[in-house]
């Protein structure tokens, strides 16, 4: 996870610089063969190449993200595990009997009050 931010920063910079460099190169005829194109063709080709360069950078960034090794799986809290194991080992019959009878009496009393 520590390498995520530098990779993101580099990918973001390249996503801005690559299209700008392509557009600059076409505008100043730095690429070979650009002089033979009309101005509208130069604009179209440079625009398409700029868009393709951004998509290539995004694709490369996704590839790098998928190639990363997964982080170590988080471990549960030791106190939580101890409490969970203790609650599993408690006898169930005494807990259920007390709770269910208490709730049943309470609901019968309230039912009588409501009905009568």
UniProtKB/TrEMBL annotation:
The keyword ATP-binding does not apply. The chain crosses the membrane at residues 44-66. Signal peptide: none annotated. GO terms for cellular component: endoplasmic reticulum membrane; endoplasmic reticulum-Golgi intermediate compartment membrane; ER to Golgi transport vesicle membrane. InterPro entries: Vma21. Keywords: Cytoplasmic vesicle, Endoplasmic reticulum, Membrane, Transmembrane, Transmembrane helix. The keyword Lipid metabolism does not apply. It is found in: Endoplasmic reticulum membrane; Endoplasmic reticulum-Golgi intermediate compartment membrane; Cytoplasmic vesicle, COPII-coated vesicle membrane. It is a multi-pass membrane protein. One of its GO terms (biological process) is vacuolar proton-transporting V-type ATPase complex assembly. Required for the assembly of the V0 complex of the vacuolar ATPase (V-ATPase) in the endoplasmic reticulum. HAMAP family: VMA21. Belongs to the VMA21 family. PANTHER family: VACUOLAR ATPASE ASSEMBLY INTEGRAL MEMBRANE PROTEIN VMA21 (PTHR31792). This is Vacuolar ATPase assembly integral membrane protein VMA21 homolog. The lineage of its organism: Eukaryota, Viridiplantae, Streptophyta, Embryophyta, Tracheophyta.
